[in-house]
Amino acid sequence: MIAGWNRKEAGLFLLALAWLALTLGVRPLALPDEGRYVSVAWEMLSSGNWLYPTLNGLPFFHKPPLFYWITASSLGMFGLHEWAARVAPLFGAGIAAFTLYGFALRQKGTTVARWSLLILVTQPFFFGAAQFANLDMLVAGLIASTILLAAEAGLNAERDLPYKRLLAGAYLGAALGVLAKGLIGAVLPGMVLVVWLAWNRRLVLMRKLVWLPGLAVFLLVAVPWFAAMQARFPDFLNYFFVYQQFQRFAEGGFNNPLPFWFYPPAILLLILPWSWWLPAALKRTRLEAETRPTIRSLMWIWPAVIVGFFSIPSSKLVGYVLPVLPPLAYLIAEGLVRKWGDVPNPRFLKGFALVAGTVCLSAIVANNLFNHKTDRHLSSLIAAQRQASEPIMFLREQYFDMPFYLGLTEPVEIFDDWSVANTSKNDNWRKVMADAGKFDPERANRLLIDHTRLEHYICSHPVSWLVAPKGTEGEYPYLQNITPLATHKSTVVWRLTRSEVSSRGGCRQTPSDDSADKSPPLRTAG
Fold this sequence. Notes:
Blueprint: H1 7-20, H2 33-47, E1 54-55, E2 58-59, H3 66-78, H4 82-85, H5 87-108, H6 110-121, H7 124-129, H8 136-158, H9 164-181, H10 184-199, H11 206-209, H12 212-232, H13 236-250, H14 263-270, H15 278-282, H16 286-291, H17 293-311, H18 325-340, H19 346-370, H20 376-385, E3 392-395, H21 402-406, E4 413-416, H22 429-438, H23 441-447, E5 448-450, H24 454-458, E6 463-469, H25 477-480, E7 486-488, E8 491-497, H26 498-503
Parallel strand pairs: 3-4, 3-6, 4-5
Antiparallel strand pairs: 1-2, 6-8, 7-8
């Protein structure tokens, strides 16, 4: 049994994990993030290429591979289901909850630990992120576990208690954090710990926390994948670290520019109703002030450092600050226990927890009812009528979730004006695909095709499927009088036959089988 745990504690943790998984599969994949990341994982599984992630067949190096490895493994074991696609964020949430619960049990006792766990998993922000298939919750859980394990190792070392297992776990967590989302997986825990030790005048503990066997674990886990990618793709390190990690952090002009003060009010709103009790966490007794400053200061410094770090760039995404939720849950729990004694009023606080849980479930239901940005319905219509030999083509848009819902095992040809793909700093789908194409130009030439060649490709096949934004047909006369198979929101699907397109004035020069595989050069350079 894990130190500080008994069967009841283990049962409570498993119950909390089951709660987080309760609505894991009720929503379709959200676009663009869930569709994009899950499709990358599906490509990894279907292609058998577990070495590097690909998006529509092209190397995709926005993020490291850990999320894709976990998700592809889950899809391979359980099938193409939304809940299976969300195992990675659930794993991250579980790691955060597990380490917080264990830390609080050993350092503060059963009551604070149980309330910390309950508050954490019923924060709407945490609950929703545990069921959202992107990298934020996975790396947040690993950052939280690294901080908690390293902090407890430091506390134990100071008291001459065993600490090296905890420290080894912290180094492993940091390495996995790097494989989940890059340098922040190690940099953020390091910043939090250094500031915490400096604040408490305990920097001497760094001599024990900087541990050579731990560094060896970190390097053995984190470095090989990056070395392999650089060996295969000579521009990889420059693109991944200089551009994706440093340049995007330092520069403005990327997605979601927001004011520097954005995160604190956003966090308070997203953890309602529990944020109501944060003022109670500010109070402490004189005895606590004299004897127990270290843990409380860790739990305040932790969110302050992370919020401060992510407030620097103008581009802000709310998922970046998920690592602050475990310390806030601990602080609220400690404040409640202090206010009501070691056995808080069960009726009042359990009722409050019930309200928090209801808010969590209501948010999921509301999202399912009102967020219709999904291609699941259109994908089911295509799947019901399409033969496996009939190609699917995308025009003027990338439909990230369709490969997952259709179970496609080959990339899709995407038609657009690729000459303008590099003119924007924003992470729109064109720039994402154009960047990916630079790592495999030969294959990109076959998949990212100038839209003026669409007619040529349609007429190369007896039957083909075309997915495009509504209104796009106005640019292509041979599509204007063909009735779409289906229209959903802003997306149109056509089932096109060569004879039908020919009767509308298309296919004037029907290509031979030999010419059907040829395409114009991809214009993405410069």
